[in-house]
Write a structure and sequence with these properties.
Blueprint (H helix, E strand, L loop, with lengths): L29 E10 L3 H12 L4 E4 L16 E2 L10 H20 L8 E5 L2 H5 L1 H10 L6 E4 H7 L9 E5 L3 E2 L4 H12 L3 E3 L4 E7 L2 E6 L3 E9 L5 H9 L9 E8 L10 E3 L10 E4 L5 E4 L3 E2 L10 H14 L8 E9 L8 E5 L4 E5 L5 H18 L40 E3 L4 E2 H9 L7 H8 L12 H7 L16
Parallel strand pairs: 1-2, 1-11, 2-8, 4-13, 11-19
Antiparallel strand pairs: 3-7, 4-6, 5-6, 9-10, 10-11, 12-15, 12-16, 12-17, 14-15, 18-19, 20-21
Helix pairs in contact: 1-6, 1-9, 2-9
């Protein structure tokens, strides 16, 4: 495997379509004239951009923030789901299964990690244990036939650090953990490497459809596109309402808070510990991360705000207590970090996919907890819908396949890839907690999809995301990123 920094990515150049000034009179700052405009730089938008680019379409991804993953996608559990508990016969199940299969198919070529954990659906009460028959039946109906019922002793033999109060468990062998940030970065990077565009700080301010094309006004200029895919996540309903005149759904923001334990906790548990789900939520999960930590979450808090991803002491303490109750040894492990994400829930559980074929518009809404897994499947679904609308493209014969950096703490025996610090010539270790090199920082700032802000740099490298949370490395990062971001890091000088 060639490290990302060493790879000479030969960008596939697509010829720009002829721009008819008479047709678009009054729109002087035309940024792009493309087949497809994808609105939203979350994991689903990035996956859709990749799929249509590989299909041969010219595509532009529009994101209102300065980097990808600035909305719902930045805070999740990073689990690759099998779909064993998805609604039977649903579009969600179809997309989860297809997304799962495609991730496993492409991950090695894109340098995407996979932590083979398996999962235990754990019952701690008689009532929870009684639901196992239904869980097993649903899994079989969903085509997931390798689940196995474990007794208390079998569960504790597999995970001896679980509390002895566990009654039984269902083993789901093919639930895994992935890197939730490198995957969408890889999808968009491949789209751009194959002729696509990504435009940031490009919030949609208006749009009109005429002559079988869209003219989308953004804060950066005008986009001309034949088809529009709304992947705006938390603002998908607002976008439909503003541009189409109505929305078929309403986003009901749902905050999920997480607690991340120190890397010392990684030795305590190997499996994802799933709760028995309820009608409202999949519940609190305890899971290893690809970066060597152990995390617990999310909460499920209804709120009005679509931007408030703050954490609060009460809920964090409750999460911590739940984790310790189920894994008592966690009581002695310090917490490294806390965070929260906001899921774009709607008034209904299912995915909210809507097609306006008359105006060449597709909306992907209500993509909640399974979005990371389903993204590649949703992208295929979108392309099928485009074909039904009459879209015709020529698939690329030899697409560019870029590699993204490996940030995984674990070495996959089936696909061993070194971290950058293990390869000579990295310059210096900038972040010692996460072993982030100067070379990684520079690559993230200079790639074909460069970090647009400091949060984006963190997600691409894990700088400042370790135990000290940037206390020791922030000054050096401020130096390395000087002039790169609209909001620079402040350098604090300490005087003795």
């Amino acid at each position: 495997m060639i490290p990302f920094r060493q790879m000479n990515i030969q960008l596939r150049q697509k010829k720009s379509k002829a721009y008819d000034a008479e047709t678009d009179r009054g729109f002087n700052s035309l940024l792009a004239n493309v087949d497809i405009a994808v609105i939203g730089g979350g994991v689903v938008g990035c996956a859709v951009a990749r799929r249509v680019a590989l299909a041969g379409a010219s595509v532009v991804l529009l994101e209102k923030a300065s980097d990808i993953l600035s909305g719902a996608s930045k805070g999740n559990s990073a689990i690759l789901h099998t779909g064993f508990d998805a609604p039977e016969g649903s579009l969600e199940l179809e997309c989860v299964r297809k997304g799962y299969d495609e991730y496993l198919k492409i991950r090695k070529s894109l340098n995407l990690p996979l932590l083979k954990t398996g999962a235990l659906v754990a019952a701690w009460t008689v009532e929870e244990e009684e639901k196992f028959a239904g869980i097993l039946e649903k899994a079989r109906n969903n085509g997931i036939k390798d689940l196995r019922l474990l007794s208390q002793s079998e569960a504790l033999n597999l995970e001896p650090n679980l509390s002895g109060t566990i009654r039984a468990a269902v083993l789901v062998p093919r639930e895994f953990v992935i890197d939730p940030w490198s995957a969408p970065l890889a999808y968009l990077t491949q789209a751009v490497a194959n002729g696509g565009q990504a435009i940031f700080n490009a919030e949609i301010t208006g749009g009109e459809f005429s002559a079988n094309h869209w003219l989308l006004q953004t804060k950066r200029g005008t986009i001309k596109a034949k088809y529009v895919i709304n992947c705006a996540g938390l603002y998908g309903d607002h976008l439909d309402d503003a541009i189409l005149g109505k929305s078929e759904f309403t986003i009901k923001p749902r905050k999920g808070q997480f607690v991340v334990f120190d890397k010392a906790a990684s030795s305590l548990i190997r499996s994802i510990i799933l709760p028995v789900p309820t009608e409202r939520t999949k519940g609190i999960v305890i899971f290893p991360t690809i970066f060597g930590n152990l995390a617990v979450g999310p909460t499920a808090e209804e709120q009005e705000s679509r931007t408030d991803a703050s954490v609060d002491k009460t809920n964090l303490e409750a999460l911590h207590a739940q984790a310790v109750k189920k894994i008592p040894a966690l009581a002695n492990v310090p917490v490294t970090a806390t965070y929260a994400g906001i899921r774009p829930a709607t008034e209904k559980k299912e995915y909210r996919i809507f097609k306006d074929f008359d105006r060449n518009w597709i909306t992907l809404g209500g993509i909640r907890s399974t979005g990371l897994t389903a993204a590649l499947g949703l992208a295929r679904h979108v392309y099928n819908l485009l074909e039904k609308q009459g879209a015709e493209f020529e698939s690329l014969d030899n697409p560019v396949v870029p590699c993204v950096p490996n940030l995984a703490e674990y070495s996959d025996p089936d696909f061993p890839v070194p971290r950058d610090w293990q390869i000579p010539g990295y310059g210096e270790i900038v972040c010692h907690c996460e072993m982030v090199t100067q070379r990684e920082i520079c690559s993230a700032l200079e790639s074909i999809v460069p970090a647009g802000n400091f949060d984006g740099l963190k997600r691409r490298t894990r700088a400042t995301m370790g135990r000290c949370q940037g206390f020791y490395c922030s000054a050096r990062l401020a130096e390395l990123t000087a002039g790169k971001f609209a909001e620079p890091l402040a350098i604090v000088t300490c005087h003795g």
